Amino acid sequence: MKLFVYHTPELTPTDSVPDCAIAIDVLRATTTIATALHAGAEAVQAFSDMEKLMQVSEEWPAEKRLRAGERGGAKVAGCDLGNSPLDCTPELMQGRRLFISTTNGTRALQCVQAAPTVLAGAFINRQAVVQYVLTQKPETVWLVGSGWEGSYSLEDTACAGAIAHSLLSGSNIPLDELAGNDEVIAAIALFSQWQDKLLDLFHYASHGKRLLRLNCHEDLKYCSKPDILDVLPIQREPGVLVKNS
Ligand code: MLT
Question: Which of 7, 58, 109, 169 has the most beta carbons within 10 angstroms of its beta carbon?
Answer without folding.
Answer: 109
